[in-house]
Structures are given as C-alpha cells and as structure tokens.
Fold this sequence. Notes:
- It is a single chain.
- The protein is an alpha/beta fold.
- It folds into two domains: 7-95 and 212-266, Rossmann fold, CATH 3.40.50.1860; 97-210, Rossmann fold, CATH 3.40.50.
- Helix content is 44%, strand content 16%.
- It is built from 13 helices and ten strands.
- It has helices at 17-26, 48-64, 75-80, 83-87, 97-107, 119-124, 126-134, 148-153, 162-171, 173-177, 194-201, 210-224, 245-256, and strands at residues 7-11, 32-36, 69-72, 93-94, 112-117, 139-144, 182-185, 206-208, 237-241, 264-266.
- The protein has a six-stranded parallel β-sheet, with helices on both faces.
- Helix 5 crosses helix 7.
- 49% of the residues are buried.
- Bound molecules: D-glutamic acid.
- D-glutamic acid binds at residues 11-13, 15, 41-44, 74-76, 118, 121, 149, 187-189.
- D-glutamic acid (DGL) binds next to helix 3.
Amino acid sequence: MDERAPIGVFDSGLGGLTAVRELRRILPGEDIVYFGDTGRVPYGSRGRDTIIQYAKQDIAFLLEQGVKYIIAACGTVSSTLPADWAAGLPVPYTGVVAPAAAAAARASRSGRIGVIGTEATVKSGSYTAAITALRPDAAVTAGACPLFVPLVENGYFAPDDPVTCLVAQDYLAGVQAAGVDTLILGCTHYPLIAPVIGRLMGPGVRLIDPGRETALTAREDLARRGLLRPDGTAGTARYYVSDSTDNFARLAGWFLGEYAGGPVTRTTVDHYPVQ
Length: 275
Ligand code: DGL
C-alpha cells in the first residue's frame, strides 16, 4: 500500500470534521479526503439497514479516492457497521467507539461512566459493551440526544445558545443523576457543544472527545503498519459533501478550528451498489 495515499474520513454530515481537526493536529503531514453525507444526515434516527447501506456507499466513495486508511468519524456508523464486514475491506478501518471507550475506561476513577449519542448508537449498546469489556466494574449510563445533531448542523452551538442549553438540560438529567465522573461525547457532532455540556455536568466530569481519541489511535495504527507518510511536508485536505457546498463553507470553520480552505466539492454516493 502507498503510504503517501490520503486518509479517508467520513460522517453523516459535518460532525466528523471534529475528528479531522484532531487528525490535522496529531498527524499534520497526512493528506485527508473527507466525505460528509450532508444530503442524507442525520443517520442516527434511521434503521440499522439504512445506516449500513449509507456507510457502505460512503466507504465505496472513499476507496475510489485511493485512500490508505478509513476512519468512520461517526458514532452511529461505528456502532452499526458489522466489524467482520469492515475487516474485509482492502484498507484498514477504524470507528470511534473503541478508542473513546478505552479512553473513558482509563480516565474514570469511580467507574461510573456516561455515554451520550444518537438513538441508533445508544440502542446498539456499543459503548457499554466496549467499556465493560475493558472494565467489568464499570457502571455505564447511556442516553440518546436526538436533537443535538440537527441543532449543531444548523449552527445552534454558541456556548450560551438558549435552545441548545434547554435541550441539553433535559438530555443530561440521566447521566447527572447517575453521578458519572466521565462522559463520552459519543457522537462526533457533540464536541461543538462541549462548553454547554461541560457547564451542565460540572468541572468534576471529564468529557471524552471521540475524534481526538480516534486520531490518536489512527496514528498508532498507521505507525504500526508502516503507513505514516514519510516526507515532512504539510498535508492537504479535500472535502466532499452530498448537499450544497454553501452550508459546508459556512459551518466548517467552527468544526475545524482553523479551516485551511481545502477545496469542497459536491458529489453523490447513492449510486454505489451495496454488497
Ligand atoms: N456524527 C454522527 C455520530 O457520530 C451523527 C449521526 C447522525 O447523523 O445522526 O453519530
């Protein structure tokens, strides 16, 4: 495999850009191809078969771009795509669940760990299974937050946004009552509203960002496989979305921190056959 090939990253929408932001910090020399399925977002309230079909089409698109490694920067896909199917891909694949669960299992002192995510993620039990496999003593409390993704995709992420604060108060009541000391932001959109979540949870609760943990895991994995790009030049990023590029350009800066202005192209992926 060509170690100079780009890393492929995808999400249902813009949330996966929080993982790209961390990848650019942690692996600044890597090229990245990002696909955000903005025409079909959200995934998290859809049925399992639909999520799997969408994820396979997203992956087919990235493979066509010649990527050397694929990151599902989406808690919903990571919780739903069968691991044995992903293991059969021609390039290595990782989701966000295992890295975030491992970080939470390490970080928690009390073993009381919270997870918030989309309906599909919470229903799958993926984070709970991954955490308890590492820490059988852990008590995991999971809560679905279905309105967070549309709020974030529509720009309601200011730290004092009254709508997001009100919704968050309601959604976080369960993990607050459980007295968790660690909370996994189990959907890659949620780091954008981490200030709101952090304020409601209080300073004693450690928030785990799945994009950051996955970027760290990817670095280790690429190094172990001899796939890190060898030259020292700065990596580039190309972005693809399945809906208008206007929204992407408007919102991407918030997700990426310092948006480097890589080209954004509209594409479709629904024609890829699903196997
Ligand atoms: N960023 C996706 C996740 O991590 C959002 C899923 C959705 O589209 O509902 O789960």
